[in-house]
Every structure is written in C-alpha cells, then in structure tokens.
Amino acid sequence: TFCYTMREITMIAWMNALTDMPDWHCNVFDPEYTFQWKSAKLLTGYDVTRSMVDWVSEIAVTYVRPWDSDGIPSVSKK
User: Fold this and answer.
1) Is 3 exposed, middle or buried (0-12, 13-18, 19+ CB in 10 A)?
2) How far apart are CA 37 and CA 56, in angstroms?
3) 3-class DSSP state for residue 67?
C-alpha cells in the first residue's frame, strides 16, 4: 500500500491533466506555454510551491524524450 501526501496527489493530478492536453508533448518545450501553465497552477489557491510546478514540468519533458518521432518508444542505446 502506498501513502501519498496531498501535495504528491496534487502533482500526480497535474501530470495527468497536462498529459491529457492536445500536443502536450510539443508544448512542454515551449517556454511561454510552460510559463503560463506554471503560473496558472501557482494561482490556484492550493498549497502550491514553485518547486512543485517546476518538478511536474521537468518530469513531463522526461516523458517525451524516450519517444522517437514515429511515436514508438525507443530502446536505450548503449
């Protein structure tokens, strides 16, 4: 059984919402888009920190990197 804090649950929900958006895999590399997304999350009124939104944004970028341009996950090359 896993036990998460409210902040962790919030961050997981943000990641789900972000990755459900159209073209999210391209938008996470756009500084203006990420600035607007982060600002919106910081202004929600919830117990949110800049580190939380930065982390979600950085993790989203790592989700995109393993995929090839044809949409197939690439195998790490050694």
Assistant:
1) exposed
2) 11
3) strand
Q: How many residues does the chain have?
A: 78
> Tens digits of per-residue pLDDT, 49-74?
999 999 999 988 888 866 656 665 55
| Average pLDDT rounded to a whole number, residues 5-13 | 89
Q: How far apart are CA 74 and CA 16, in angstroms?
A: 22
- Whole-model pTM? 0.72
Residue 61's Cβ-side half-sphere holds a number of Cα atoms within 13 Å equal to: 11
What are the tokens at 78? 């050694």
Closest CA to 30 of 53, 69, 61, 73: 61
> Where does the pLDDT of residue 78 fall: very low under 50, low under 70, confident under 90, or very high at 90 and above?
very low
